[in-house]
DNA sequence: TCAATGCGTATGTCCGGACAATCGAACTAC
DNA sequence: GTAGTTCGATTGTCCGGACATACGCATTGA
């Protein structure tokens, strides 16, 4: 029984995108079972009234997402494993919200400071030039979960404390028209200093999970540098990654 | 001054791949400076004697790698930031070797055991069925750096202790014809148990970086499940990730 | 002076076709 | 029975063209 697929040519949504979304929904929904063959591209194109390149583009986007696997001479199969989503540049806020945790944020510091050598190097600005500094405590179920310290270059956009407590930093940046492109991250661990321990209601020397990140927009500007510490009993980094073929 | 580009039509290497490699080399080498425009696709295609779809395919692969950015009505630009490589499914061994650290491996355990509930769930095999168990100590500059405990389903390939000490697990799997596809990872931290502390020559309770990973091949089979502990003073996870547009 | 309009340019989408490379299975020969 | 060969099926690569869409800039108008 072939899958119900159709495209709307009067829609402004690209045809290949309509198709890829329907296929993805069918996989998610279980209509396309893992391991099942998708049927050959030419026949699929004919059935939908599309050209083969358009169908290929739709399929390729799902291959890139890790949902499909192509085998020459065999066909295109639905991947058999539990693919969730590849690692993306997500904010802690979004992660928690997606998990239904209703995160709370408390802005501790929101000011302008002179860039230290480390911050200046990360943001590619002159040392001692002005940069925004934001320190936030992220809570989940009323308990401290992470301490986030971020630096932003000046003139990027207004850092409103109320907004920072209502949503995540990345969402604010996107809303300000900044196109996030890539980030360099470093994840490590260390014992908590006395100050860190107090912030997170841990004892001194307790193991902490740490993350440093510099984010770039599509022009190559560094738009954010952050140093985060997490309570490992309450947070860990979970993600899926794909092997680039 | 246009860039020197050419393709060899007698080569079995796909034309779009030849072009993308040359462009990538030009970016790496500095012939294409960050921010510079690549020149429009049609003119580029004409200059190389290629069709526009072929040129687009080459460019697209570099966009996917994060090296180029396309802007409608503007052109294609070289990304201005320091892109190294996106996060990939690399083994610790490869990482260390790439950093010129000449890693050493000591196989502590290489045997077959009955799968615990956790291992059975991760590998999707029956509880108490036979699985391979490998425990290795990874050293760098003669000092312990990580303790790696891995489980593999039976019948996948022969786990030779000598080979395990000479190279990484992923390299062995690839050599055995296994096509790695994706992995689910979890990175956290905790204090060392007495046993862990001794293995890594740390004191009990010292902060450790932990990683759990299940790797799948392109048929969806789980081919490996591992629990790793790292000394955070000697190792951290460094990677770059791209925003999927 | 400043905002709205129009235009050129570049990428985005889509088509229909052609041939090559590879996989798997059926078939054949020993 | 087994090994090698052939063959159909399917994806991979490539072509040349067409129109749509969005951005930046110059022109125009108030």
Q: What is the H level of CATH, i.e. the homologous superfamily of the largest domain in chain A?
A: Chorismate lyase-like
**Ranges of chain A with pLDDT <50 over ≥5 residues?**
none
Helix and strand element order of chain A:
HHHEEHEHEEHHEHEEE
Q: Tell me the greatest interface.
A: A-B, 51 and 51 residues
Give the class of chain A from helix and strand content and strand pairing. alpha+beta
Silhouette of chain A: elongated
Fraction in helix of chain A? 25-40%
| N/C terminus separation of chain A | 32 Å
- The CATH class designation of the largest domain in chain A is Alpha Beta
The domain tally of chain A reads: 2
Mean pLDDT of chain A comes to 87
Strand content of chain A: 25-35%
CATH architecture of the largest domain in chain A: 3-Layer(aba) Sandwich
How much is the radius of gyration of chain A in Å? Answer: 23 Å
Total strand segments of chain A: 9
This entry's quaternary arrangement is: homodimer
Question: The biggest beta sheet of chain A, please?
Answer: 6 strands, antiparallel
């Amino acid at each position: 029984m072939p899958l119900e697929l159709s495209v709307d040519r009067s829609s402004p949504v690209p045809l290949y995108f309509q198709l890829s979304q329907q296929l993805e929904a069918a996989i998610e929904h279980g209509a396309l079972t893992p391991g099942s063959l998708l049927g050959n591209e030419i026949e699929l194109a004919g059935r939908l009234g599309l050209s083969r390149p358009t169908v290929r583009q739709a399929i390729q986007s799902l291959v890139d997402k890790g949902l499909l696997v192509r085998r020459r001479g065999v066909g295109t199969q639905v991947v058999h494993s539990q693919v969730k989503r590849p690692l993306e540049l997500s904010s802690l806020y979004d992660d928690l919200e997606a998990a239904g945790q209703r995160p709370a944020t408390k802005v501790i510091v929101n000011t302008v400071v002179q860039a230290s050598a480390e911050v200046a190097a990360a943001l590619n600005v002159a040392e001692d030039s002005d940069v925004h500094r934001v320190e936030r405590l992220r809570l989940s179920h009323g308990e401290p979960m992470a301490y986030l310290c971020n630096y932003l270059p000046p003139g990027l956009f207004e850092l409103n404390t109320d907004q920072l407590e209502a949503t995540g930093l990345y969402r604010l940046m996107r809303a300000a028209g900044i196109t996030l492109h890539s980030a360099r991250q470093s994840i490590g661990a260390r014992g908590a200093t006395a100050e860190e321990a107090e912030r997170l209601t841990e004892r001194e020397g307790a193991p902490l999970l740490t993350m440093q990140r510099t984010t770039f927009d599509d022009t190559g500007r560094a738009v954010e540098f952050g140093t985060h510490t997490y309570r490992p009993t309450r947070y860990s980094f979970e993600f899926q990654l794909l092997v680039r073929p």
